[in-house]
Amino acid sequence: MSIPNELKYTKDHEWVRHESGEATVGITDFAQGELGDIVFIEIETRGESLDKDEIFGTIEAVKTVSDLFMPVAGEITDVNPKLEDTPDIVNKDPYGDGWIIKIKISDPSQLDGLLTAEDYKALVET
Predict the structure, then answer these.
(1) Is the pLDDT reported for residue 126 higher than 90?
(2) How many CA atoms lie within 13 A of 112 on its CB side?
(3) N or C: which end of the chain has fewer CB within 10 A?
(4) Structurally, how many domains does the chain consist of?
C-alpha cells in the first residue's frame, strides 16, 4: 500500500495535493483496494463551492457505492475527464492519473487539519 509523504490525507481516505491555492483530490491506495473494481464515478458539483466535509460525488465499485467528501472548503474547478470512460484508472493509479477533482481552496488554514502521511498510515493500520 502506497502512502506518499508529500500529500495530506483525510479520515475518509481522500488525499490532497496542494499547489498555490489549488488542491488536487483523489482517493487513497487503501481506499481503492477496499472498494475493489471501480466501475463508475459521479461528480455533478463542478463549478460549485462546497464546505469541508460536504459530499461532492459518489464512487461506485462492484461491491458498493461510497460518498466522496470535500477535504477542504472551496470551488470545484475541474473533474478528471478520464473518469467517464475509464473509472478504473483510480484503481491503477490513485495518486497520478486517477485524481478525481481540483479545488480552488477558500480557506487554506483547513489544510493544517488534514493528516500527514504518518498519521494516515497509523489510521489505516489500526
Answers:
(1) no
(2) 3
(3) C
(4) 1
Residue 33 lies in a domain: yes
Which residue range is the domain that position 36 belongs to? Answer: 8-106
Render 28-80 in DSSP notation, one character per residue. Answer: -HHHHHHH-SEEEEE---TT-EE-TT-EEEEEEESS-EEEEE-SS-EEEEEE-
| pTM of the full structure | 0.93
Cα 120 to Cα 12, 38, 40, distances in angstroms: 10, 22, 26
For residue 63, give the CATH number of its domain: 2.40.50.100
Domain assignment present for residue 37? The answer is yes
pLDDT tens digits along 64-105: 999 999 999 999 999 999 999 999 999 999 999 999 999 999
